[in-house]
Design goal:
Two copies of one chain form a homodimer. Chain A is of the alpha/beta class. Chain A folds into three domains: about 130 residues, 3-Layer(aba) Sandwich (Rossmann fold), CATH 3.40.50; about 170 residues, Dihydrodipicolinate Reductase, domain 2 (2-Layer Sandwich), CATH 3.30.360; about 70 residues, 2-Layer Sandwich (Alpha-Beta Plaits), CATH 3.30.70. In chain A, about 35% of the residues lie in helices and about 25% in strands. In chain A, helix 3 packs parallel to helix 4. The longest helix of chain A is centred in the first third of the chain and has 21 residues. Strand 11 of chain A pairs antiparallel with strand 11 of chain B.
């Protein structure tokens, strides 16, 4: 008998309950193990009084620990009290499965070390990419590879908003409102739209992929709040889209890792990842590029990943996650490679803006497009790296003709 | 110390050697295990006399077994003598990793049962999708799902040929020749171009996904040898491509499973899977659609998958593959659902062909396009199922106006 306790019974928690209940018979027949959800921790158990399993709801964590669960599934989210609860579980020899990316990005290494010491499992497949199998394929199937880069569209909320803005020519605020109405965005969308959710997932992925603990707060993070309809119109003329990309790559033994909106050609597979879908591309030295696509959030997809972790624990498989240091690298704050950039200049007379641009990017491969507006242009320029680009943009910014400059990395 | 013996040293075998050697230190530091390739079975060891590891090459399987390997990696391909060797390994308590889809599709269930009985691992991630992690994500990460369908582009050779025919307007023979020149097709391409390679992989995937042993020889299999430039031109007018699809789905408690060329819209992600790339889409009741993309063959991608299996064995993880019977289903020979089909008629006068088509598909949603040719038309028709379609096509075939009829399922 494996006794499971759920911490939290929101969207994901109720999904986990459903998926576990549905699989009790098959787990029994396949592994000879009786699986049972014994307790569910919630704040207010009266809310669930009408459910057939109302007796499982508890409001005290101590009470739940007293009934000695084998596995605790943490699906409350947030750092507190989730951190204390998970730590207590590990210290008491209880296996933990969590979907909590905030917690793993913040305390993953420490909790993982504790779990190794206490010989229990701490698994968190659902924390990155929701239902998409990513962490296990990365750590196990691709274990013979050195990972060179990670490219991911890994926040469904921002991807949904950007898809709406692109496909239905909406403004940001209108698209955000719809995302909130259909449940893809929280009432307070800060963590998603500012890129914090994506960068936490990128930090988890990067730490596992490169065998080194990376802090999400060291990674430059730009969200989508400054993207407007004009940006979208500009990239449409380039047969491209804007995607919020979570990207990390080893370049000259240093890591570039950032979340930022980038311009992606419509002929790139990443451009097809629309709405609530997520995609993770891993590049390994043996396997080349492998791409995983699916729903990155939601009740049952997330529960599917949590259940995969439970199956690992049932079969007594403990992964070494956050593996030991393989490389020691700092994080580049600026894109260090030669690349194309889309630049938008808003200001005075179109022709003067063009002259200014030509003066700064004289030697560069330059493609200038003027839109319907008289006072703005957009261009694709080539630059050796982001620092060089910023130097030139800063010169442009000094001109009285220029009111606003926006720039986006053009992704491969 | 884990002693590995390689059976075979072709493209994949030499790749496995390379990947194992590269990872010896990291395996030691991560798992405290010394990994060593001790023996390599080949037919003619003189061929390898100049290699630094020339002393490892042996020509006798008995000699290799006498030195008591812990893990045998079978990368010879084919049924004989691979089957006898693998069986002997399992019976002698030696773990086996294989990339041999022919063997697993033919004898997987039997060998798996023997492996369970002898308490050894038989792992074959590389047999489907080359380097792409598919079998482990399916069996472990998605273990809480009932799989509803599998959609796969899973033969790189045919995908390369179809890509060449489409992108460079080549004929089949010319594209095949190029595939052979660049090493994507064998001198005898039968197994690939007739769809046998793909259907064997589909049988392995389907058996694991639906928990029942399916024989590849029960699955209707159509290759790409009959596809000509005119077919390609026709689908281009529909903004679509032809892809060789390996597909299985539970429909009304029966399985439809087949390999066949289908028409795929260019807006479908599957249309982006070009050249030697493979894709596998799994639909689960909890997770929805997840898609895995990568290189389905080649030296190092395949070696990457083999090495992932070796890591599992090092960590003493034995999967229950070919899990026990969950459903008992026969295989539909014909597409059982309402669908669109592309039909090509070649024969007499275009207008008479149109009249014939209208007479048979009067009630159907019908889209007829005439190409540059005077004696042929193509159309998209709607039909309740393939049997109904075949009935109507058989009536058309009786007309003296019709010389040739071709038809393709239009995929979703």
């Amino acid at each position: 008998m494996k006794r499971i306790a759920l911490l939290g019974y929101g969207t994901v928690g109720s999904g986990v309950y459903e998926v576990v209940e549905k699989n009790i018979d098959s787990v029994q027949s396949k592994f000879g193990v009786d699986l049972s959800i014994e307790d569910i921790l919630v704040r207010n158990k009266d809310k669930y009084a009408d459910l057939p399993h109302a007796d499982k709801f508890k409001t005290s964590f101590d009470e739940i620990m007293a009934s000695k669960p084998d596995i605790v599934v943490e699906v409350m989210g947030g750092l507190s009290p989730a951190y204390d609860y998970i730590k207590a579980c590990i210290e008491n020899g209880v296996h933990v499965v969590t979907a909590n990316k905030d917690l793993i990005a913040e305390h993953g290494q420490e909790l993982q070390n504790l779990a190794v010491q206490k010989d229990v499992a701490l698994l968190f497949e659902a924390s990155v990419g929701g239902g998409i199998p990513v962490l296990k394929p990365l750590q196990e199937c691709l274990g013979g590879n050195s990972i060179d880069s990670i490219t991911a569209v890994i926040n469904g909320t921002t991807n949904f908003i950007l898809s709406k803005m692109y496909n239905e020519s909406m403004g940001y605020e209108e698209a955000l409102k719809i995302a909130q109405d259909v449940g893809f965005a929280e009432a307070d969308p800060t963590s998603d739209v500012q890129g914090f959710d994506a960068v936490r997932k990128l930090a988890i992925l990067s730490s596992l992929a490169y065998g080194q603990e990376f802090k999400w707060s060291d990674m430059p993070t730009i969200g989508i709040t400054d993207i407007d309809s004009d940006d979208i119109e500009c990239v449409k003329t380039m047969d491209s889209k804007i995607k919020l990309l979570a990207y990390s790559e080893y370049i000259n033994n240093e890591l570039y890792a950032a979340v930022r909106p980038v311009v992606v050609s419509n002929s790139d597979p990443i451009a097809l990842i629309d709405n609530e879908f997520n995609a993770v591309i891993l590049t390994g030295d043996s396997v080349g590029e492998v791409m995983f696509i699916g729903k990155g959030a939601g009740k049952l997809p997330t529960a599917s990943a949590v259940f995969g972790d439970i199956l690992d624990i049932i079969q007594n498989k403990k992964e070494k996650s956050f593996i030991e240091l393989r490389r020691d690298a700092t994080i580049h704050k600026l894109w260090p490679k030669s690349s194309k950039w889309m630049i938008r200049l808003v200001g005075g007379d179109k022709n003067k803006l063009i002259q200014l641009l030509l003066s700064q990017f004289a030697g560069s491969e330059l493609r200038i497009q003027t839109s319907g507006h008289d006072n703005q242009i957009h261009a694709v320029v080539q630059s050796d790296n982001e620092a060089e680009l910023l130097g030139k943009l800063s010169s442009l910014d000094k001109s009285t003709e220029v009111d606003q400059i926006k720039y986006f990395l053009v992704y491969r």
